[in-house]
Prior knowledge:
Radius of gyration: 19 Å
Helix content: 25-40%
Strand content: 25-35%
Distance between the termini: 28 Å
Number of helices: 7
Largest sheet: 12 strands, mixed
Shape: globular
Order of helices and strands: EHEEEHEHEEHHEEEHEHE
Amino acid sequence: MFTKLLPRDAAMAKGSAFISDEVQYNLFHRICEGSDALCLKTEDGKMIFAQTPKQKGWLWISKEVNREERKVLIHELASVLKDVPLPGVASDPLISGEFAEAFSKMNPVRCQIDMTMESYCCPNVIIPKNVAGECRKARHEDIELVADYLAGFLRDAFRSPVDSETQISKAKGMIEAGGLYLWCVDGKPVSMANNSHRSPRHARINAVFTPIEQRKNGYASSIVAALCTNLEKEQLVPMLYADISNPDSNKVYQNIGFLKSGKITEINFLR
């Protein structure tokens, strides 16, 4: 019933049913690149599952599949994954809920909603006006600042203390990868954003952060817009995920041309 899903698989290529939901499920492209990822699809390509070890599994089911067929597919997948150490699932709110229910009947887990994100794409960026500063790539000498920004980003996202020292290695890696940018005013960094991953048709932006004292000045809007402009030159459509519980960040993205493209609900499986 299930076969291996490969990077650049036909099930996620132009002409497939997946394409209409590609922004919402863009993370599939990144997961499938992992050599140790568990990636499965049905033979007809209308259901896809992908999981990085120790991370939540992502699940997509085509809208062409009716309710009864969907229940059968979900039950079969839950059976296949019965002995897999799965910490949770991420999918459309309806699908993630249905899978969590099926999986919890086969495993001693409790299900708890972690967060719901809105996916966005930006086919035409709107450049903010009258915002001071300029965009530049993060450099080696920015490692400590970036680590501090990453800690702030995580504190905002998970509402728990994070020591910036724990983010030094990650900051170094992101800078070396070449996708991390800073918005600077009079030479001083005031905001951050990262080009995280490029897939065949899109590029994902993440780690958008502005310190509290620098917010409401348009810096986040400007740096994200700058990254979008660069990606447009590569003929890639920028996309990102935003926690719906943060209306300010969602408004920032919408104001510069990002369009809602479907929600993803993450559910934790607690043992």
